[in-house]
Amino acid sequence: MNNVFALAVVVIKELYRRKDFYVLFILTALITLLLGSINFFDDDKIVRFIKEIDMNLIWLSSLIIAITTTARQIPSERENRTIFPLLAKPVSRCEVLLGKFFGCWLACGLCLVVFYLFFAVISGAKDHSLDVGSYLEGFWLHWVCLAVVISFVLWGSIVFAAPSSNSTISLVLVLGILFVAQHLKKVSLQLSEPGSTILSAIYYSVPHLEFFFNVRSLVIHGLPMPSIIDIFLATLYGGAYGAFFFLAAWLSFRNKSLA
Amino acid sequence: MRPYLAMLLLLVGSFGIAARFDARQSLFTETREQNASMVTLLLGDSKRMLANHFMAKADAYFHKGYYPTIFDSPKTNEASHLIDSAQGNARAATNTAKVVVAHHEGDDDDDDDNFLGKPTDWIDKFGRHFFPSTHSHLKGQGEAREILPWLRISADLDPHKIETYTVASYWLRTQLGKPDVAEEFLREGWKSNPDSFELLFELGRLYAENKKDTPHAIRLWELALQKWIKQKEQGKKVDTFDLEQILVYLGRYEESQGHFREAIDYLKKAEPFSPAREQIHAQILDLESRVK
Lengths: 259, 292
Hints:
The complex is a heterodimer of chains A (about 260) and B (about 290).
Chain A: H1 2-17, H2 20-36, H3 48-79, H4 83-88, H5 93-127, H6 132-159, H7 163-180, H8 184-189, H9 195-205, H10 210-221, H11 228-254
Chain B: H1 2-35, H2 38-43, H3 46-62, H4 81-93, H5 98-105, H6 122-127, H7 140-144, H8 148-157, H9 162-174, H10 179-192, H11 197-210, H12 214-233, H13 240-256, H14 260-270, H15 277-291
């Protein structure tokens, strides 16, 4: 466990040494503040418009950070040949993967804390109220979603040849799932065979990340959030998919030639 | 000598190119000024599509995020509720279809508007806990303002989309108590759409209902009526609902002034287009009895 923790700390340190997060956070803050300063019909109490833009930017930034950070972990260790001394120590390949996963997940969690704090400050300043419970639930579901994405990209970093291809394919797939996955069943019902069965199979097999993504509408419009049981079930659902992709990554990595 | 000739040639060439580019740049600048914004220049005709998207976004906000996607097929209400709501208020004012307003001001959880239908599987059922899945509307002054940014953006992208101005004006003057801002926006729309009878009618309502300046409102409605007739004569597709609204409002004014015959004339013209002909007919009979 100490090995996993030590590896995770290295990933977190790497994230705050790199400029990715700072650039994305400053961009998000700048765009939000710029749009927040626009006056629509002499009304300075309009808040949902800015909350929506901010939330969307947070989602986009967090996905970029999660995917790019995870995608380069294993390939950079192999490219710099640091993977060999790492594995020469009493560290198993599974521990390396676990360390990388938890490092990326915790690093993304830290970024999300900063993003959500900014979101809360902007919302509070405009709305003069702070729905901490909703923001916490939104944050948690967002973080669970990133766990699934990170474990998927970790698998991709072993399967795909380069971090760039892994990042691009992962981003396209994740965005596709977020925006289209929930509608696949409706589309499949209108198709003829075998298209209908194929689409239904995809619908039931992909991780429905939109559960976590769609919560932002509830946060933006100040609607009641899902119950604790729903959040628990969604966490289990996300955890199961995260574990599945992690297992796939470990199966691909355990006998892989690193030379 | 040759280098000097080459230099001269290059100089002439540069001058020619500069003059050519200057002419193009002037044309480019003129076009840009005509189009008024960089967004217009960059987006071209696709800005209309985007304007529709932002209008739909305003409608989605009106429903607190409960809104069909392109994959959902609304069963009953294909038209925008946001526009319906603004028009429904006009209908109520003319006593023709209070039902429309009753729907939009009251019943939030209306089964007819459940475009989601019954869940098809556990993923669908469970997923509905994570997004707005019940029908509700923005209520009160505090929430109504939230639709305005999307309407403003929609109007900027497509200044010829009349509904954007009339809907924004309706919300500004009835829910947010800002008739002056509504008037400014309507006049902005009128500038871009000088032949619009809808904008004149809404401007008239603003003068009649908010500024209590009925004579001004009448002049605007009469102008709106002229514009409607002119467009009809030109063979343009015009909505008879608007004509009915204008005529009924004019009829009500004449009635309030004691000009019953003029009121009857307007109502008789409105009757064939009204969805509540019986009510209009009863009003005509009432006015005729008062004339006698």
